[in-house]
């Protein structure tokens, strides 16, 4: 099954299959790959007077729709894919078979069904852990240090409209091999890309905001 799925994928298109529907996922606001109105066997054969008829998820013909690219060889690309475009895309291929001896013509029909889903990248957030040595766990300076650390970190990433969230600081006594007892602050925090102003930044992006958001949080 896995090898068969690989065979259905060409250099820049996805082949159909008369025996089952072909499922694929398209990232929102991007173009789908070309969906070919034929299977692997037909792609290696000559077709006489081929005709292709594509129908979208709403059951209506896709011919003439501005958001699709239909080629003369029966390939379909859905442009600027959105969640509302998800669903079944069905193509009917008709072509003639001519008997060599009698020149008798007959027409045959084959249907190919593609189920296409829109997807979004997950919003990224990063959790970090760090340890600092302290004299004693009871020091009031430990709390002050933690608050100052958060302030510095937030200042560093403020221009990226990111912020520090879900931060915590706990002090533990640690015995290392062949050494005495140490006191350490175990600090953890999460970098979130949703600081105040992130929506305004997203409005400047002509596509879905997730790419810009994830890039900022990685920085």
TrEMBL record:
Gene3D superfamilies registered for this protein in UniProt: Immunoglobulins (2.60.40.10)
Domain Ig-like positions: 35-110
Source superkingdom: Eukaryota
Record-level GO BP terms: acrosome assembly; binding of sperm to zona pellucida
A Pfam match: Sp38
PANTHER family per UniProt: ZONA PELLUCIDA BINDING PROTEIN SP38 (PTHR15443), ZONA PELLUCIDA-BINDING PROTEIN 2 (PTHR15443:SF4)
UniProt name for this protein: ZPBP2 protein
């Amino acid at each position: 099954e896995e090898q068969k799925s690989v065979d259905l994928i060409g250099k820049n298109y996805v082949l159909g299959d008369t025996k089952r529907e072909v499922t694929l996922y398209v990232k929102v606001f991007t173009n789908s790959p070309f969906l070919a109105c034929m299977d692997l066997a037909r792609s290696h054969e000559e077709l006489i007077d081929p005709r292709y008829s594509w129908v979208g998820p709403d059951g209506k013909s896709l011919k003439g729709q501005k958001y699709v690219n239909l080629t003369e060889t029966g390939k379909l690309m859905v442009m600027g894919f959105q969640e509302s475009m998800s669903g079944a895309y069905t193509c009917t291929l008709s072509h003639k078979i001519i008997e060599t001896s009698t020149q008798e013509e007959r027409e045959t029909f084959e249907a190919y069904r593609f189920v296409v889903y829109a997807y979004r990248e997950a919003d990224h957030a990063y959790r970090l852990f760090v340890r600092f040595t302290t004299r004693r766990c009871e020091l009031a300076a430990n709390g002050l240090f933690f608050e100052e650390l958060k302030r510095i970190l937030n200042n560093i990433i403020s221009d990226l409209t990111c912020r520090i969230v879900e931060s915590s600081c706990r002090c533990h006594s640690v015995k290392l091999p062949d050494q005495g007892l140490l006191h350490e602050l175990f600090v953890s925090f999460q970098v979130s890309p949703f600081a105040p102003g992130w929506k305004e930044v997203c409005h400047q992006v002509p596509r879905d905001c997730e790419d810009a958001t994830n890039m900022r949080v990685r920085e």
